[in-house]
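Q: Convert this sequence to structure tokens.
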Amino acid sequence: MKLRLTEKFLWDIYKLIKVKDEIMDEIWSRKWYGFKEPFEMIWSDFYKVKDWYWEEYKGKRKRERFVKMISYLKNKGYLNIKDLKNRKAIILTPEGMEKVFHTKIKLTERKRRKDKKWQMVLFDIPETRHKDRDLFRKQLRYLGYKKLQQSIWVCPYDVLKDTQILIKRYKLDRFVRLLLVEEIKI
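A:
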């Protein structure tokens, strides 16, 4: 699936953060012995990512376009810019992490269930949580679900774990039921 440039940029930043977290885990567990400042390695990687994106923008105004994209993402609330160690650092906000989560779902390769059964989701989410309900529906669509009714969705793919993660993420355990059905006749 083709991603928009802003989604790809957020995804790449997320991957860098994930690498930094893995390095820090190794440092704290004393398994990693290397640079005195492991963050310097991460920031240099960030500047490589920045250079790659400058290449994406053709023409004379590469830097302006890149800055405009960063400004757009910042205005949307997906990231913040902080000064750390005399350099600019990009920090993903909770909204940015949500966008990354959406991107991850888009990028996940779907495999049809071998047993030819269908995953079914039934939900009754109250009106007081309509934003969560709308986001949940959107995520179900990304996972490959099709709508049978407004609150009944089915999917031929093996997405049980992803669906469970989605339910926990939005704290919808009380409102959602998962079924595995053999056939669907409409």
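The chain has two domains: 5-100, 109-181.
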